[in-house]
Amino acid sequence: MQKMKRRLGFSLAGVLLMSSVLAGCAGPDATQPAAGGNAAETPKGPPEKLVWYVRYSEPANAKAVLAKANELIQSKIHATLDLRFINPGDYDNKMQLIMSSGEEYDLAFTSAWANNYLNNVDRGAYIPLDEMLVQYPDLQSIMRKEVWNAVKVKDKTYSIPNNQIMVSQDGVWFKKDIADKYGVNIQNVKSIEDLGRFYATVKEKEPGIIPLRAGSVSLGFNAYVPSAENLFSIDTSTWKVYDKAQNYVDEYKTFREWYLKGYFPQDVATLKDETSLIKAGKIFSRYGRQKPGGDAELKAAYGFDVVQAPTAPPIIGRSAALSTLTAISTTSKKPQLAMKLIHLINTDKELINLLSFGIEGQDYTKAGDKRIEKKAGSYEVPGWLLGNVFNTYLLPGQPDDVWEQTKKINETAQIDPLISFNFDRTRVENEMARLTAIEKEFQPILDNGLDDTEKTLKLREEKMKAAGFDKVLAEVQLQLDEWRKNQK
Predict the structure, then answer these.
(1) What is the annotated signal peptide range for this record (predicted)?
(2) Quick one: which of 32, 113, 114, 120 has its CA closest to 76?
């Protein structure tokens, strides 16, 4: 009988913006009114430039699209945007270098899974946004209170969650033509063993196609287990904290078998440009978040039909809330203006569609008031990287009511019991830095079966212990117990 456990995976979460600056902190633009407010006078002088880093390879036609977007931005908030694209495989390292150098920039994509939000807050990379947040009441009401609580660190909000699907539901997508060819019925995908049988068929009969992009414990069809700091799991029957790796030994062993059978790319753990491989039809399946209309989005991104299967129940948890965020850098000299831009991209339909899909006629054609058809090889940036996807056009295959469906899920999904638990790393900051580095070292090995599972887990445990794992676990347990005392 399959065990029922599951880590809180990184998800696409959605949510909208808001923010605020330190009390008494006034940049050069501090006298400018909030976006949407009544300006006492029209700003004078040339518009100020805002630099925004995003985790995406520069798309076709980017310069033309940004030029048109800047016409709109300048007319609305007297600013221009320098949207700087960084290849996803390089994003973490380059952002670390940018922050370490003290480079002046204004906004950046951050999350629980890329350009780690919590680590960056700890290092002082972002400003708290709560005071600016109150200037944008139209944004505050868009998401559930629990989601805003999840984004806070030490009772302060350091980022704006991008407003999209907030539910974290793990799943897997399959290339439809191959799935149909070999009878992969998603209704029959109920276990990791089922996946293994499908992959064996593809490996045998389609030697030019890789069965699975990469391993993930989220493919284990396990029940939900709350987690903390991506290192610890919490048993909510006893409220005891333990090493999350204990949940997934069986999955890790399965991934080792799959690796040895050649189900993954040879460079599975270091592959930087998976998109080209997927678009070329060389990948049969990949882990992916489940959401209404997701299959249509994948078709638009990759150029072929997919079918999807959920591997876990829908949950709104902290990792989901932290999965797609926009933060304002402490090096920004225009934090108020940066906040205006966040507000604008989350409330102005023309801007979010322009920066997501490009220019009508050049990059897409209209197929209705709210629906478009993309042109091959044209500009495109996922809306969830930037802001409010509920204001974006519909793509072919997406239901007319996809955003209504998504909002309903956001409003009704189960809330993680630990969504507002914010671990304070202060007393174990050095240990946490070491443990995070060790986890980053071992996770790709375990998820992709790159070495013997038992040997790898033993070595991981030894390194974790030496780095202060027990001390941090005790601190998490202490703070968790204190947090529970204050819960109603």
Answers:
(1) 1-23
(2) 32
